[in-house]
Amino acid sequence: MCGIVGYVGDEYAVPIVLEGVEKQEYRGYDSWGIGANTEGGIIIVKHKKPDDQEFDWFVERVMRVDFCSSRNAIGHNRWATNGEPSDINAHPQTDCTRKIALVHNGTIENYRELKDFLLARGHIIKSETDSELIAHLIEDMQKQNGGNIRSAIIKAVNQLQGAFSLLIMHADHPTLQVAVKKGSPLVYAEVKPSCFMVASSPLPIIKYARNGKDIEDGQIVFIENGKAEELSFADEKIKINPIIFEGTEEELKHEGFPHFMLKEIYEQPCKLGETIAGRVFTHEPFIRLGGVEPVLPQLLACDQFFFIGSGTSYRAAMLGAWMFKNYLNVRAQAVQASEVGSHNILAGCQPDKTVAFVISQSGETRDLQLAIEEIQAKGVMCLGIVNVVGSKIARMTKAGTYLRVGPEIGVASTKAFTAMVLSEAMLTLLLGRHKNMTRDECITFANQILAVPGCLELIFQQADEIQTLAKSMVDQSALMLLGRGYHYATILEGALKMTEVAYIAAVPELAGEMKHGPIALIKPKFPVIVVAAKDGLRGAVIQNIMEIQARGAFVIGICTNGDEEMQKLVDKSIIIPDLPSHLATIPAAVVFQLLAYYLGVERGYNVDKPRNLAKAVTVG
Ligand code: F6R
């Protein structure tokens, strides 16, 4: 995915847009670009991010250029899809005349046909991007219709297939910015009278305005001469829905912490408190989930449940499915969003007795959007477990629950994961209360959920030890993670964190499966992290630990507070609070988050911006 941002008004536009580009770095950071409309034409500065440089380097490049006090600028963060990261592929992209400049987030599916068409008409295409073709297409349409930019843009966007949000400027129209949306997110606001900002997310705008508009698919905003005109792709006047932008400036900074990832790890007690605030009670009704209650009768009639997500959200999905099976005694299955189309997952399902929970931090993940479309086409209800309020996935679902953890900026998901697990526990309680749980069981279950935020403190008390452990493993290129039951999802999540922020090949394996092959990796001193919690599987895990210790492995145990026997058995222990295993996954995941963080930092990596990644994956 990429980020786009623009400002047009009476202030100097470049500093505002530059700040917006920095705030949207989580959306992509392999290249940055700025374009400003000036009396002398459109001036563009765009660069691939050098391996050893950060955003300040780009700021310095921008500062070298005289933008002639431009009041109209657009900016871009790139996460490469079509064409490698390079200066030429960075945005803004321009047409042959360099009069049209645009920034683009999304992918154009009819890229090849458009390229052939434009080449045949003599356009000179300089980059490998699909985005550049849009600028040429507008140029072409403009030539065909006697120079009218407005109808040229409308004609051009109607020829594009795929997902795109665009911000377009034209050298002959000094105050013009055109925002176009289909599939990729886009919001805009009048930040003060006659001054406008447009962006992929509210983050660049909230400093200036709280009231904005959420541009929907098939909508265009023409901003010119201090006025915004809202149109459909069919060139009809429309009214775009107003929204209030949430979040605070504070949430966009990592003050007091060296990285967003660490800040977001430490925020978990407070943010998880918000996830459950006003929702879980130790007395009747035990649970209140306002976003789900309108569909509760339908939900209670269901006997088959799917939990669908990608990456970290898929790991959370596994836990949701297991909670439903174990506590509600219903059929429940987790599926990776990208696999929904590969298997006939709904085979034999009765649509009115089936529900799919779709899980996403960003609410933008393309694989999940495609999965939702496929599931809904078969008449099955999708309910969201989503963080970003009003995001595409939240709007595609009939109802659902928000995570309430605020913006997650670090690319590796941390607080969203634990809030997803807690939300699934709340859903389990909601259904259990109406289906099969006794009053006492509800009280116990509610008390356990309520205990989670506070008990994470125990992990933070061991942060120095975890850091020391990370230091001792800094030269490892591989390690193994073992778990059973619910903790299989915990170690999958732990391995993902270590892989993405520390670039360590972390092999997650079901402890019981280890002897069927992975044990071949074990040799003296090979580090193996075992989730060795005090639960029904403890005895089997002890057996597995002894098998690998017999072969010389160095065993780091994530052990339950008070389980001294286990702590003595392993070579090094990290203690997690005594919670039932479906919830013990939360503190155990926090241990892995901290370990991955310190490993990444000790190995010298920028953990907030891991190689090749972006915060939301909007390509399918
Ligand atoms: C890993 C990570 C990704 C996301 C995945 C889904 O730390 O962040 O694996 O979990 O791309 O993203 P969302 O939850 O936004 O749908």
TrEMBL record:
Cellular component, GO annotation: cytosol
A single MF term (Gene Ontology): carbohydrate derivative binding
Reaction it catalyzes: D-fructose 6-phosphate + L-glutamine = D-glucosamine 6-phosphate + L-glutamate
Biological-process GO terms, alphabetical: fructose 6-phosphate metabolic process; protein N-linked glycosylation; UDP-N-acetylglucosamine metabolic process
UniProt name for this protein: Glutamine--fructose-6-phosphate aminotransferase [isomerizing]
Span of domain SIS: 295-437, 469-610
Keywords recorded for this protein, A-Z: Aminotransferase, Glutamine amidotransferase, Repeat, Transferase
InterPro entries, per database record: GATase_2_dom, GFAT, GFAT_N, GlmS/AgaS_SIS, GlmS/FrlB_SIS, Ntn_hydrolases_N, SIS_dom, SIS_dom_sf
Pfam family, one: GATase_6
Enzyme Commission number(s) of this protein: 2.6.1.16
Record-annotated Glutamine amidotransferase type-2 domain positions: 2-226
Top enzyme class: transferase
Gene symbol of the encoding locus: glmS
Lineage: Bacteria, Candidatus Kerfeldiibacteriota
